[in-house]
Amino acid sequence: MKTLYFRFALTTIFIMFLSGLIAFLLSNVYYQIKLKPYNDRKITQMASNIASFYETHPTVNLDHYLKGISHLGFQMLLIKEDKQKVYYGKPFSQHNLTQSTINQVLRGETYHGIVQFPKQAFVTGFFDDELRNTIGVPIDANGKNYALFIRPDIEYQFGEMRIFFAVLVALMIGLSVLLVFIGAYYIVKPIRVLSRATQKIAHGDYNIQLHVNRRDEIGQLAQHFTQMARSLERLEEMRQEFVSNVSHEIQSPLASIQGFSKTLQANDLPPEQHQHYLSIIEEESSRLSLLSKQLLTLASLDRDKGELDITSFDLADQMKQAVLMTEWGWREKELAIDMDLPSTIIQGDSKLLYQVWINLITNSIKFTEKGGMISLQIVNTSKKEVVVRIEDSGIGIPKQDLPYIFDRFYKVDKARKRNHPGSGLGLSIAKKIIELHFGSIEVISAEGKGTTFIIHLPYM
Ligand code: ADP
């Protein structure tokens, strides 16, 4: 497998070599344009000095003189009038001087072989010790004409410098490669840690500790990843709690249905008791049916986030309709219903909002003693939102329970449950629907005095 570590290291090394190559080509261009003419001028100056010294001191033995100079680090060719060639210093690698060039210098002209040396991408010409890569100067002494071709002996003059640069470059490359591998290891390490953490999460273990103290993108990634793991953990806890709540809610009606149907199988029951047990079975089955309906509603609200079927309708009409729907409940408990519902046209998902009013009104009926009062109000003062208040004079909600009543399956206390059966889902469904309409729901309650739900619904 090509690991990220190797990819990273190899890419960096490739980039290093590529940069080296490009740098060489560019510096070669610089040599050709700037340094080569300078080098040519410099060597021409040296050659002229050598020639003029001999010309002004004609008694000097030319052979000894040139030999001495060659020992200072020069390669030379002396051509005499009779075409005799004498070499000094290190031999030239190629003898490629044309006869016309030789004649030209013998005639008294200077030959600029260094600056004329052909330009090539990978050849600087600086190191090429060919005869044509020389400077040719005429020497005129004692009435004799000579041609002197000269170039520096690079190996002699720069020998140790070349070794120095070779060692420098080799060490630079070697150390860079080594450090790239070490650096890549530390850069890639946190990604490996993250990868192991994802595997842990995939196996259901959310307890991950990432010690990535970096402030760069990888540090941020690790931080976000830890947050994601925490949310997943919470989500998993919520899911487990939800499943256990659902099972519990299903279990108790099923157990009572099972128990009563067993009892009903005994033939010697008096008819009233028979009837009573049947009505309990019916009640429990409708509880189960309501529960499954509520669970389906919640599931679809969770799934189709924000997908509302928006229409325009009169909120007052809808709330009156909900009061009519629950008439049987409040009539039976002889509750007074007070309505202050001015006609208000709103935009929203009418089916879902109807569910909200039904849930809130049935709760008010359920938790209000016989002869109590329920008040419904639409307050329509702002142009931005409409406020709905649903108030009852019921048993109220203890202060410590108030923060939780919108949680799924939350019921105030077990003792109440017997008198007021319910799933604990009604308020969470109502809240979810209101939030999908970008509104809010709040509760004010005092134990023994009553409860008020206040809903803010913005006009869409
Ligand atoms: P349930 O199906 O149990 O009514 P809800 O989610 O509708 O579930 O309500 C959650 C809990 O909040 C109820 O069990 C009840 O204890 C409390 N509650 C809701 N509405 C009222 C109210 N109007 N008066 C008093 N308590 C209420």
UniProtKB/TrEMBL annotation:
<feature type="domain" description="HAMP">
    <location>
        <begin position="185"/>
        <end position="237"/>
    </location>
</feature>
<dbReference type="InterPro" id="IPR036890">
    <property type="entry name" value="HATPase_C_sf"/>
</dbReference>
<dbReference type="InterPro" id="IPR036097">
    <property type="entry name" value="HisK_dim/P_sf"/>
</dbReference>
<protein>
    <recommendedName>
        <fullName>Heme sensor protein HssS</fullName>
        <ecNumber>2.7.13.3</ecNumber>
    </recommendedName>
</protein>
<keyword id="KW-0843">Virulence</keyword>
<keyword id="KW-0418">Kinase</keyword>
<dbReference type="InterPro" id="IPR004358">
    <property type="entry name" value="Sig_transdc_His_kin-like_C"/>
</dbReference>
<feature type="transmembrane region" description="Helical">
    <location>
        <begin position="6"/>
        <end position="31"/>
    </location>
</feature>
<keyword id="KW-1133">Transmembrane helix</keyword>
<keyword id="KW-0597">Phosphoprotein</keyword>
<keyword id="KW-0472">Membrane</keyword>
<feature type="domain" description="Histidine kinase">
    <location>
        <begin position="245"/>
        <end position="460"/>
    </location>
</feature>
<dbReference type="GO" id="GO:0005886">
    <property type="term" value="C:plasma membrane"/>
</dbReference>
<comment type="function">
    <text>Member of the two-component regulatory system HssS/HssR involved in intracellular heme homeostasis and tempering of staphylococcal virulence. HssS functions as a heme sensor histidine kinase which is autophosphorylated at a histidine residue and transfers its phosphate group to an aspartate residue of HssR. HssR/HssS activates the expression of hrtAB, an efflux pump, in response to extracellular heme, hemin, hemoglobin or blood.</text>
</comment>
<keyword id="KW-0812">Transmembrane</keyword>
<dbReference type="Pfam" id="PF00512">
    <property type="entry name" value="HisKA"/>
</dbReference>
<keyword id="KW-0808">Transferase</keyword>
<keyword id="KW-1003">Cell membrane</keyword>
<dbReference type="InterPro" id="IPR050398">
    <property type="entry name" value="HssS/ArlS-like"/>
</dbReference>
<dbReference type="InterPro" id="IPR005467">
    <property type="entry name" value="His_kinase_dom"/>
</dbReference>
<dbReference type="Pfam" id="PF00672">
    <property type="entry name" value="HAMP"/>
</dbReference>
<feature type="transmembrane region" description="Helical">
    <location>
        <begin position="163"/>
        <end position="188"/>
    </location>
</feature>
<keyword id="KW-0547">Nucleotide-binding</keyword>
<dbReference type="InterPro" id="IPR003594">
    <property type="entry name" value="HATPase_dom"/>
</dbReference>
<keyword id="KW-0902">Two-component regulatory system</keyword>
<dbReference type="InterPro" id="IPR003660">
    <property type="entry name" value="HAMP_dom"/>
</dbReference>
<keyword id="KW-0067">ATP-binding</keyword>
<dbReference type="Pfam" id="PF02518">
    <property type="entry name" value="HATPase_c"/>
</dbReference>
<dbReference type="InterPro" id="IPR003661">
    <property type="entry name" value="HisK_dim/P_dom"/>
</dbReference>
<dbReference type="GO" id="GO:0000155">
    <property type="term" value="F:phosphorelay sensor kinase activity"/>
</dbReference>
<dbReference type="GO" id="GO:0005524">
    <property type="term" value="F:ATP binding"/>
</dbReference>
